[in-house]
Design a protein that fits this description.
Length: 253
């Protein structure tokens, strides 16, 4: 990495440093390559470590860098598109669903979710936990809340929990006729559990996609899917659902 001297500029020094670092990432580093440590980078560019951290944090937020436990700061691969469509709808767990069932338990949902599901404040619902992996890397986790009224015929299922139970609940849910689904997206930060599942640091930026599945005029299921913001970008169109697209193999850009 070069030793470009920072000049007096109107924008904050860390922002100018971010531009210099971006040029270096484009010309000198490949996807997955580990950057030098903060001390060496700060000395090389003649800036305080606090300034360097601000620039690195901004590049991480923009998806150019990833901070990985036990590894360090690496150059991130191209972002994958999260498509939030409006025309095609499908229940989770269908044949084209890329999510993997992890577990299913009966739990009382948070009060705000119970209100959306029109269940009692102390009424347990099926909580299906799923994950999504791309190229061997976790990119999203999901909690899917399903009221008992949406899946009434589970008496013959022996598995009390686990992936088998999750798949059985989703199969039963698909018996309903889906009228429509509604998506909402917001930027958030990873909590301790989400960070562990997504192999990120707590507080890392995430995209939270909330989906309401409507059947028989009511909310039959509610999904809260958390995507790594450093690896995903939003795309809007009529492709439907949430889909991850891979970009071509290339150096970071």
């Amino acid at each position: 990495m070069g030793t470009t001297q920072l000049e007096s500029v109107p924008e904050p020094k860390y922002w100018h440093l971010k531009t210099v670092l971006t040029e270096a990432l484009d010309s000198e580093f490949s996807v997955g390559e580990i950057l030098p440590n903060e001390r060496d980078l700060a000395a090389r560019f003649g800036v305080a470590r606090a300034t360097l951290r601000q620039a690195l944090e901004q590049l991480e937020l923009e998806g150019r860098l990833q901070r990985r436990r036990g590894v360090g700061t690496t150059v991130a691969p191209p972002r994958m598109g999260v498509s939030v469509g409006s025309e095609q709808h499908a229940w989770p767990g269908g044949p084209d669903d890329a999510w993997h069932a992890v577990d299913c338990r009966l739990e009382v949902p948070p009060a705000a979710l119970a209100e959306s599901l029109v269940t009692g404040s102390d009424e347990a619902v099926h909580v299906v936990r799923r994950s999504r992996v791309s190229r061997g890397q976790p990119v999203a986790s999901e909690l899917l809340y399903i009221p008992a009224a949406s899946v009434p015929d589970l008496s013959g299922i022996d598995a009390p929990s686990g992936a088998a139970r999750a798949r059985a609940v989703l199969r039963e849910l698909q018996r309903l006729e889906l009228e429509r689904q509604e998506n909402a997206v917001e930027l958030g930060s990873a909590g301790a559990d989400e960070a562990r599942e997504l192999d990120r640091l707590p507080g890392a930026p995430v995209l939270v996609v909330t989906t309401r599945y409507i059947a028989r005029g009511r909310t039959a299921a509610l999904s809260a899917a958390t995507y790594r913001a450093d690896t995903c970008r939003l795309t809007f169109g009529d492709s439907g659902g949430v889909e991850i697209h891979h970009g071509p193999e290339r150096q970071a850009s």
